[in-house]
């Protein structure tokens, strides 16, 4: 369907075109609000005839992606997701990340939602099963390349230098493919048998290697153990809708285990036509999927259910069924998927998760501290000094999980004598919020959380500074400021020694695991504040080292200063030079020479 300017605003498919088109021109009560709105702009209906219904389904998807019609349900993010590609058509297959899946004789696994998780999966795989990641063109024998670092740290068996033959390498590739396909039980069983065989042969060194590998594999699949009596591969789908935005939650079950969950947002979804939105999602999602499970579990019957089943079966080469469970294990999983979709939409409304690419660490930190509002802006503070010289402070900012370098601020310590980090922290916090109370546009954005580099002492100093600034509210010098109200801003401190998080009012610190992403985010922000402070400190120190008495003389800039030092070699030699000697220096006129003699 096209508008008056020829733009495609809706794409659909039909077995009987006359019946389908007439349905859009029926009584208003029989059409949805979105359809009624669309029909006001439709001026032309065009059509393409295909040989089969499956062809029509594929063509519909292609046209939706090509034209992005306003009134079609569309995947909000149409980017290419990353895959793991194993080049099984080479003598020594390699594994790497790609965003383009093709029918080229290789094996693809994915897609993965986040590139970071894909890189972590690849890193873990090369630890468990040494498979090459390089791009060298290898033959079956007589490879004369030099082994790289991966060989020396046990992440590649060195086929580039004929350190392993093709049959032994193929065993590694098979284990990689089994693991990526979700068949972790087979990998665990085989590793256990190899460990026991090596132990019986008294080859304890090899047995220990198999034991360590087995431990890593079991650790990698620990979070996947949502077991069932079934060993089937299934995709379980739930859907929830608010206004015109729907959220689809997809749970990937492989070998009876819940391996992964993904969510997608659909635009222009009508709450009264969830089945239509779900049908559009399934058609678009599985069109580019490399792997389709035998069973796709749905929350409701959808349009063209038998047609989509036939298309998926033809695509996969095996029978694929769309199933709407009424009870049992699959029904429980489907309820879980729907509940997750509803939670995501609720979080979206509250601006906790405000995009599909939100930093999860921000949400976890908010929950950890028991805060009601999302952490849109976090400010971190640090002090840098060399004894009592060149003491400075820094403020760095994280907005929506990303560094906001334009919001960074630096402070030169003015009122503190000696090396007193607590007093220095108190000074920079006080100066920052006094300027906010005075409605200084460089400081008028207030944080949702403040991070202090240090322990309880620095945290107490920051608290004292905040209490002092609140006591200034309402005083004459700040009464004219439009934004002179300072809210109760949460504070935390991160101590460097064992990375403890101190919170005001709590005697015991919060200690997170070393591999916790929330801790990593806080550490990165703390380190950025430290880097910014140290950079400013070094700049001041270098400036003082390069300063000289010549800087105080009028009309002696950097070029004349350099020319004088190059000619005479030192300040003492310049002091002893005659007027004629100074005039002999290129670029020094008489008036400047007289100033130099007078000053020195």
From TrEMBL:
Gene3D superfamilies per UniProt: 5' to 3' exonuclease, C-terminal subdomain (1.10.150.20), GIY-YIG endonuclease (3.40.1440.10), UVR domain (4.10.860.10), UvrC, RNAse H endonuclease domain (3.30.420.340)
Signal peptide: none
The name this protein goes by in its record: UvrABC system protein C
GO molecular function, one term: excinuclease ABC activity
InterPro entries linked to this entry: GIY-YIG_endonuc, GIY-YIG_endonuc_sf, GIY-YIG_UvrC_Cho, RuvA_2-like, UVR_dom, UVR_dom_sf, UvrABC_protein_C, UvrC
Species of provenance: Geodia barretti (Barrett's horny sponge)
GO cellular component: excinuclease repair complex
GO biological process: nucleotide-excision repair
Keyword Iron: no
Keywords on record: Cytoplasm, DNA damage, DNA excision, DNA repair, Excision nuclease
Residue ranges annotated for the GIY-YIG domain, each copy included: 1-73
KW DNA-binding (keyword) present: no
All residue ranges annotated as the UvrC family homology region profile domain in the record: 236-463
Pfam families registered for this protein in UniProt: GIY-YIG (PF01541), HHH_5 (PF14520), UVR (PF02151), UvrC_RNaseH (PF22920), UvrC_RNaseH_dom (PF08459)
Positions of the UVR domain: 185-220
